[in-house]
Amino acid sequence: MPIPTDHPDRPIAWFGPHLSGGELDRLRGVLDRQYVNDGPLTREFERRIAAFVGTRHAIAVTSGTSAIALALMAADIGPGDEVMVPDLTFIATANAVRLAGATVKLVEVEPLRFGIDADAVEAAIGPRTRALITVDVNGRGADYSRLEPICDKVGIALICDAAEALGSRFAGRMLGSFGLAGCFSFSANKTITAGQGGMIVTDSDALHDRLRELKDQGRRRGGTGGDDDHPALGFNFKFTDLQAAVALAQFDEIESRLAAATRRDHAYAERLANQPGLRLPPFSETGEVRQWTDVLIEDRSGVAAALNAAEIGHRSFWHPLHRQVPYRMDDRGFAHSIDVSRRGLWLASRLDMTDSDINRVSEAVVAALRR
Ligand SMILES: Cc1ncc(COP(=O)(O)O)c(C=O)c1O
Q1: Ligand 1 near 94 CB (within 6 A)
Q2: The ligand 1 atom nearest the CA atom of 63
Q3: 203 falls in which pLDDT band (50, 70, 90)?
């Protein structure tokens, strides 16, 4: 990864994309073969992700959103069914449920790890509930030690939105590998990007077979586009070998990228410890890797203004979904989600940030807190 020029006044970007420089070689191979559709390189990318996450299968699709929607459809969840979704997530999680035709049931989150709250999940299960979608927010695993047994006991599908959690672990186990299926995203601000793209990982042969049909017009294997058999209903959610070339070049560096994220988080944690008005949400040391460095700040708008003035990138946490128009509900039962949304900030988190970049961001934050 190219090292940025270490100029004290240069703007600091919030995050990626992080291109490796190896993409062109891989892309040239695809162009030389003249096979740009979902083909051999996509299969290689799927095999590498499955081996990395530790699942039997991986199926590449067009986006993280379609990965979640297709996982639901493959589990035969759709119109008339209800799916539990945490109130604090990127809206794609809920939109994917709607894309599958099911109804969204919003559920409260944990105050410090931001995953869906297990007690609230138990209370929200109703007669039409068919699935729970957990979100591993920013690489922090949802509480699978409680959520998996709840889903097993009630007999509902557990689908993990691990869009922000590639390579991160919960209690030592790779995120994405819990439950029936895990879904990843390769959009521009993820550890690995293909521009757009997604992946479903699963141990279930039946789910895998249905997903192959769903992503390719009902065919289990690539056909001619002519006199093929289409034994099932499916659509077009295929990946392309052009995207696989870009993603694989970055995936070759996955371990160093995860190590860089961990180093960055530790460096921030040292510099921002014990600052009044700022809380560092805890992270576990059992292989958890955060996509971005997150903090909870009482006067978030003051800190954000100071960072803007210093041309330092940052992002505020999402609004609670129950305050977005398509999912509008009153605030009752969402105190944590509202509070985390109000205080949460992702600091500049590029994987190639230098120590002096991290110092600059931290000093700007601390100065703003003292004002
Ligand atoms: C938590 C979460 N879920 C789902 C998605 C959707 O992924 P995509 O943008 O690839 O559709 C994203 C990322 O964009 C995400 O951060």
Answers
A1: no
A2: 10
A3: very high
What local confidence, expressed as pLDDT, does residue 3 receive?
A: 43
Q: Name the CA radius of gyration of the chain, rounded.
A: 21
Mean pLDDT, the chain, integer: 96
Residues 313-324, mean pLDDT to the nearest whole number: 98
Contacting residues for 358 by C-beta, under 8 A, at least 6 apart: 264, 267, 268, 271
Number of structural domains found in the chain: 2
Residues 232 and 296 placed together within one structural domain of the fold? no
Q: What is the mean pLDDT of residues 212-237?
A: 93
The pick from 87, 187, 290, 319 for probing ligand 1's pocket by mutation, whose C-beta has the most ligand atoms within 8 angstroms, reads 187
Q: What is the rounded CA–CA span in Å between residue 169 and residue 103?
A: 30
Structure tokens at 109: 């989150």
Structure tokens belonging to residue 323: 């305050």
pLDDT at 221: 80
Our answer on whether the CB atom of 93 is closer than 6 Å to any ligand 1 atom is yes
Q: Going by CA atoms, what residue is nearest to atom 10 of ligand 1?
A: 64
Give the pTM: 0.97
For the chain, the distance separating the N- and C-terminal CA atoms, rounded to the nearest angstrom, is 37
Q: Are residues 136 and 168 in the same domain?
A: yes
Structural domain harbouring 292? 254-370
286 or 249: whose pLDDT is higher? 249
108's CB contacts (< 8 A; 6+ apart) are: 86, 87, 116, 117, 120, 333, 334, 335, 336, 337
Query: Is there a domain that residue 245 lies in?
Result: yes
Q: Domain of 348: which CATH number?
A: 3.90.1150.10
Residue type, 135: V
Residue 293 in tokens? 């460095």
Confidence of residue 2 (pLDDT cuts 50, 70, 90): very low
CB atoms within 10 A of CB 184: 29
